[in-house]
Structures are given as C-alpha cells and as structure tokens.
Amino acid sequence: MNNLDFLNILLIAVGLSADCFAVALGISVSCRTLTRSQTLRLACSFGIFQTGMLFLGWLAGTTIVDFVSGFDHWLALALLTIVGGRMIHESFQEERDEEARDITRWLPVIILSVATSIDSLAVGLSFAFLVVNMVVASITIGIIAFVVTIIGLLIGQRVGQLVGKRAELAGGVILIIIGIKIVLEHTL
Predict the structure, then answer these.
(1) What Rg do the C-alpha atoms of the chain give, in angstroms?
(2) For 91-108, how does the pLDDT look when each residue is reduced to its tens digit (9 = 90+)?
(3) Does the residue 130 lie in any domain?
(4) Is the pTM for the entire model greater than 0.85?
C-alpha cells in the first residue's frame, strides 16, 4: 500500500476544488449581488459535500466502485445542465424579483454541491486502497473547497458587473460546459 502525504492531499484538494471554483464563478457572474449569507451558504455547502462525499467514497471502498464509476459523470452532467439550463432560460425573462431567481437557495445549492463533489466520491474510493489519514484528508479537502468557492464568488462578482445583463446566460453556459468537461474527462 502507498502512503499519501499531506502535500499530495493538498494537491488533490486543489484539483477537486476546480469544479467548485468554476461553478461559483458561473453563479456569481449571474448574480447582481451576493450577501455574506449567500456566499457562506454556497461555500459551506461545497466544502461539506466535498468532505462528506470523500468520506463516503472511502467508506464504500470497493463495494460500489464499479457501480458508481459507470455513470457518475453523466449524473454530474445532468445536474449541472438542469441548473445551467434554468439560468439560461431565466436570462431571457423580463426583470423579476431578485429573490425569485436566487440560485443560492437551498435546493439549487444542494444540487450543485452534489454535482461538484462526485469526483470527491471517486477519490475517496481510491483512498480505500491507500494509507491515508482520512480525518486530515477530509478536513483539508473541505477547507480548500470552501476557500476556493469564496474566491470564485468574489472574482465572478467583478466579472458579472462588467458583463451586465446577460451574465446569467454566461453563468448557465459555464455550468453546462463544466458538465460536458466532466463527461469528456471520464469517457476519453
């Protein structure tokens, strides 16, 4: 068995958080303003789901690896396409109540959290075959996902102010592209 040191765990955490960054960027580009509460809701959810899915994958070990690996990328594509498609559709609607189109409400956040953490489940499965301190790995991956999500939200807010009215369209397209990227990475 191979031993996984902290530097490798940190590099894995940064890699896993790339989807969190991209989704946060897409969301914040489309929002006119994000409150601290919305930012924390999204960042906490992404961090918690990255941590939880990693741990669940590790617990599952070899029992479900073949089952999950066959469709995990398609599930991520479906979830990201649903949320991204909704954002694209709403971008063509007339001005409406900001709260009614809040993509940081709990249901969309949970859907996005699952979609961005499926890779974490797969990494957790692989950790079952290595010597890994799962407490350190889980906490590190969750914290990095949290921080990277906040960074993505902050950068996206600046870009959204520059892009203007069709920022929500751009955000939806970004989410769908991320889903397609995930499928291509798993099938090619």
Answers:
(1) 17
(2) 787 655 445 457 778 888
(3) yes
(4) no
